[in-house]
């Protein structure tokens, strides 16, 4: 970002009034949450693939005693789902219900903190609207104190109101875009994990027979 563009942005920020500070905090939160979530999903996909591949290898070689060692340092959210696959102590119906609960826990883990993006997306326009109302109130206040009306009297307050409104909408749009993107990515990641477990379970059951 060039110096001129940066100075222009700072000037607009100042013109937007005090309401720009919470909107700035929202913007920072959006990027922090999104980047953290992308890194989390990438790490989960890598680890899930590794442990599924290792578990599949153990099943293929029928060295099931190695399972305990494999899951010793495995993330709990992955290990629980794997344990559900290899638990033979219950009926088929109980097994499916237990596995579904573990998958639901995995899905909840992947969605953790995403509610913040949804909250920002829904509340940012109202924060900007509050700035609009504040700017209009300041306009009437200036008209009352000067005893005359005119664009020159209220230009500053109207500018503040418009900037606050536009900033609130912009923050909300960005939050919605990232929220929808992450929702799709979480769903795809959870689906891939579920299918890989299903394939491994089928292979395990075929060996038992």
UniProtKB/TrEMBL annotation:
Membrane topology: Multi-pass membrane protein
Keywords: Cell membrane, Membrane, Protein transport, Transmembrane, Transmembrane helix, Transport
Location of the protein in the cell: Cell membrane; Membrane
Chief localisation class: membrane
MotA/TolQ/ExbB proton channel domain boundaries: 84-193
This protein's record includes keyword Transmembrane: yes
BP GO annotations: protein import
GO cellular component: plasma membrane
Pfam families according to UniProt: MotA_ExbB
Sequence intervals crossing the membrane: 20-39, 115-137, 157-182
InterPro entries recorded: ExbB/TolQ_transport (IPR050790), MotA_ExbB_proton_chnl (IPR002898)
Family: Belongs to the exbB/tolQ family.
Name listed for the protein in its UniProt record: MotA/TolQ/ExbB proton channel domain-containing protein
């Amino acid at each position: 970002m060039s110096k001129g563009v940066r100075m222009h942005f700072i000037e607009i920020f100042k013109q937007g009034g005090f309401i720009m500070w919470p909107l700035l905090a929202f913007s920072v939160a959006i990027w922090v949450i999104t980047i953290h979530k992308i890194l989390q999903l990438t790490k989960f996909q890598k680890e899930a693939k590794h442990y599924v591949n290792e578990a599949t290898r153990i099943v293929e070689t029928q060295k099931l005693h190695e399972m305990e060692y494999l899951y010793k340092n495995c993330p709990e959210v992955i290990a629980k789902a794997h344990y559900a696959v290899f638990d033979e102590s219950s009926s088929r119906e109980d097994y499916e219900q237990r596995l579904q609960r573990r998958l639901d826990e995995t899905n909840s883990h992947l969605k953790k903190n995403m509610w913040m993006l949804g909250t920002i997306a829904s509340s940012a326009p109202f924060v900007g609207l509050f700035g609009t109302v504040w700017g209009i109130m300041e306009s009437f206040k200036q008209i009352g104190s000067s005893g005359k009306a005119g664009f020159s009297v209220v230009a500053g307050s109207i500018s503040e109101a418009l900037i606050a409104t536009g900033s609130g909408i912009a923050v909300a749009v960005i939050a919605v875009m990232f929220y929808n993107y992450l929702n799709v990515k979480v769903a795809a990641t959870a689906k891939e994990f579920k299918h890989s477990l299903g394939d491994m379970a089928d292979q395990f059951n075929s060996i038992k027979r």
